[in-house]
Design a protein that fits this description.
homodimer; alpha/beta; four-stranded antiparallel beta sheet; 8 helices; about 20% strand; elongated; DNA-binding
Chain lengths: ~220, ~220
DNA sequence: GCGGCGAATCAAGAAATCATCAACACCGGC
DNA sequence: GCCGGTGTTGATGATTTCTTGATTCGCCGC
């Protein structure tokens, strides 16, 4: 349960999403314009903000920048379909995650949980622990059962991201966007290869998984062994 | 843990940061304006001050100068995003460190710990020891396994900074800002060269590291051998 | 059980990053 | 003005890391 704020100009969508999230047990507030939303967000300080792109009165990046000047509240951006490029630009502007419209409300809800989980876990000094796996942001070191891993940058980023989203299935496209930060570039097989390497270093294989579980047709998720 | 004082005019941020630090076990006091803050800091003499830039009633540098006239308390400046220039000006005005807004509270907490560590160790003779490496702030001397090193000023500053942040990966850009104190200036390769020299004097090389470990694509970190 | 398709792995070329050498610029003291 | 010591920039070679292609493997539905 969390306090969620939604900025969305379309009344219909706003109603739908708000109802859905309320049914899921969240406390929901909404605004129809960027300026209104910004004002209320600062005043109410909700736990997470869902921000629609393409608002009439202000660009998403502008709003984000203004918001970031005064608050570090997690922001999930809702972007028009498949416009990866702008979504990634937004991530760089300080958004925490994004969903592609039209999105299922449950999908959004999963993101909200993930973002909140992330926020809380990082309170523990920047180190994440799951099962015997430990990932440390500051030193960029990771270990399994106390044994340090020798990871390349991408491998570490990949592992970190999956660990932050532990238990949640992540698609390869999403990994390309969030870990690789390249809107158009790479094929999804790049992700496969890196996952393979990561598995090898984690002492597991796809056939004999321990942490990295393949979800056929969807993606991967990092789980407790 | 520590007594932290926060001067920040935005009520929202103030609340967020204060709560976060309190949760981390600190004793937190706050003020909303420079004049108020200054008065209280002098009266309470906390262990560390977190100072927001862009206060309405006084410029950050002015406040710092006034404060420094009466107190040696460590100061961490919070600056608007990427405004390296002003942050560095502040460092020269007597600030001890800075964070870029929006910052994660854990990040700030890490800085607080670092500043306090610095403060305490300098009380204890100002010497940092890691592995066989010893760095003395007061006399600006360093040694490895008891053998003194002949370091140039920049080399010493570099080593000192890395030692203070031992175990943490530091980017070259960060080193440029904090050790070189140049906002935009130098290229990152300057850092490479100095690192190379430092390594040579430490009796190691990039291929055969002992203290200075390269983290490809990110930066360097100083580790226990 | 068979065919189709996504996934995993291996291998090799491409790209990015880094380390080091060497030459040059700067600064203050003499 | 000259000089030693320092810091910066350029060039180059080496290393690490990333991407892509080809192939095999394994899951899933029929």
């Amino acid at each position: 349960m969390a306090r969620v704020f939604i900025i969305e100009d379309d009344a219909e969508i706003r109603r739908l999403v708000a109802n859905g999230l309320a049914r899921a047990g969240h406390d929901v507030e909404t605004a129809a314009s960027a300026l209104d939303g910004l004002r209320q967000v600062v005043a109410d300080s909700p736990d997470v903000l869902v921000l629609d792109l393409g608002l009439p009165d202000m660009g998403g990046d502008e709003l984000l920048r203004m918001l970031r000047a005064v608050s570090q509240i997690p922001v999930i951006v809702a972007t028009a379909q498949d416009d990866d490029a702008s979504a990634i630009a937004l991530l760089d502007s300080g958004a925490d995650d994004y969903v592609v419209k039209p999105y299922a409300v449950e999908h959004l809800e999963a993101r909200i949980r993930a973002v909140l989980r992330r926020g809380h876990s990082s309170d523990a000094g920047g180190r994440l622990e799951i099962g015997g796996l430990s990932v440390d942001r500051a030193s960029r070191e990771a270990s399994v059962d106390g044994v340090a891993l020798e990871l390349t940058p991408k491998e570490f980023d990949l592992l970190l991201f999956l660990t932050e989203r532990a238990g949640e299935v992540v698609t390869k496209r999403e990994l390309l966007a969030q870990v690789w930060r390249e809107p158009y570039g790479g094929s999804e097989r790049t992700v496969d290869v890196h996952l393979s390497w990561l598995r090898k270093k984690l002492g597991e294989s796809a056939a004999e998984p321990r942490y990295l579980r393949t979800v056929h047709g969807v993606g991967v998720k990092l789980v407790e062994p």
